[in-house]
Amino acid sequence: MTGKVRVELGPRSYFIHIGHGLMSRLGELVREAIPDLTRLLVVADAGAATWGEAALRALREAGLAAEVTTVPGGERCKTLAVAAAVWEACLDARLDRRSAIVAVGGGAAGDLAGFVAATYQRGIAFVQVPTTLLAMVDASVGGKVAINLPRAKNMVGAFHQPRLVVADLSTLSTLPDREYRSGLAEVVKHGMIRDRGLFQLLETEAQAVLDRDPEVMAGVVERNCRIKGAVVSADEREGGFRTVLNLGHTVGHAVEALAGRLERDGGPGDDGLLHGECVAIGLVAAARLSARSGVLAQPDLPERLETLLRRFGLPVRLPPGVDPAAVEAAMAYDKKATGGQLRWVLPVRIGQVQVTPYVLPEDVRAVLEELRS
Length: 373
Ligand SMILES: NC(=O)c1ccc[n+]([C@@H]2O[C@H](COP(=O)([O-])OP(=O)(O)OC[C@H]3O[C@@H](n4cnc5c(N)ncnc54)[C@H](O)[C@@H]3O)[C@@H](O)[C@H]2O)c1
Ligand SMILES: [Zn+2]
Hints:
Elements: E1 2-7, E2 14-19, H1 26-33, E3 39-45, H2 49-61, E4 65-71, H3 80-92, E5 100-105, H4 107-119, E6 125-130, H5 133-139, E7 144-149, E8 152-159, E9 164-168, H6 177-194, H7 196-204, H8 206-210, H9 214-234, H10 249-259, H11 275-293, H12 301-311, H13 324-337, E10 344-349, E11 352-356, H14 361-370
Parallel strand pairs: 2-9, 3-4, 3-5, 5-6, 6-9
Antiparallel strand pairs: 1-2, 7-8, 10-11
Helix pairs in contact: 1-2, 3-4, 4-5, 5-6, 5-9, 6-7, 6-9, 6-11, 10-11, 10-13, 11-12, 11-14, 13-14
The structure holds nicotinamide-adenine-dinucleotide and zinc ion.
């Protein structure tokens, strides 16, 4: 089963292709999406090196002039030093204004490669080949690209839409279980925001989803790309509506700042929480806060949400040692850093959310207290 989702953005519109074994068709799909192409550079995530090689092979077999450069897997690649190395690799590969960069890997490698594509020669074409569930349903769609500063994530970046996204579900076969489950948190989030049917499907097909059933997951990823694509079409540069995608991220980001993997050194063996795990906790917080604030119109939502997240092996309480007061302080810091008011995204019912700044601090405190483990 293969699916195709179009992200409508006028002259910057593009297709997301979703299916098993799509990598072998990468050359053809790239040619179709970028007809006047000269050369390509594959930016391969070291953690997904076999898929980077498969992409390179497919491009060359289609008669395209392609080179490859490898970047460290995960957050460690989103640095100025790695960006500089990839800019140099672009020069070595003799990329010009009609060339393209192909990112093969997780969301981090995609953000870095996209940032390089947005800046090299003031912007060249860019193709996303996501190899994690999170990158397929979230990071590869929407054109936000960035690197980190030592003290702040995603601080330097651009809006640079890909010309094509190819989500080959076969690449998920090598993804560690914990990374896969972490991606499921964003999938649950999308259902909560805009797709009651998706949420129900996750509830009834939970085992098939956990087993990475090819048919079920092709449908799930496609529905997610439709949701993210539609939100991005409506508000490409996050002027307003795109904020709904932040459901679960207000508390989620604060937990990530305190207990996330990236705050340590990102090396193997780190026991910090993954992004999706922090989002799962944030989703639970948003649901409870919605109930306390009188926004919630579906009383069984918080419990159904928690049951589903638990089923997916995701955390639904603050990690031990993370104090509710510290989470509050981290949220206040986030607010200051982004120069504004916190805009809470609260679920109204499954499939519908409301954005509001009007949330009482005592309600936030009470919810965080409830989530203390
Ligand atoms: N641009 C956006 O709109 C957006 C949205 C959400 C997240 N993000 C970014 O995405 C990043 C998180 O992405 P992620 O969850 O994909 O994590 P990740 O990119 O950090 O990858 C996780 C790990 O999996 C490895 N990996 C990748 N594909 C694999 C495969 N098929 N098999 C085995 N290992 C594989 C990577 O090497 C890495 O070690 C963050 O940097 C976040 O800021 C961006
Ligand atoms: Zn997220």
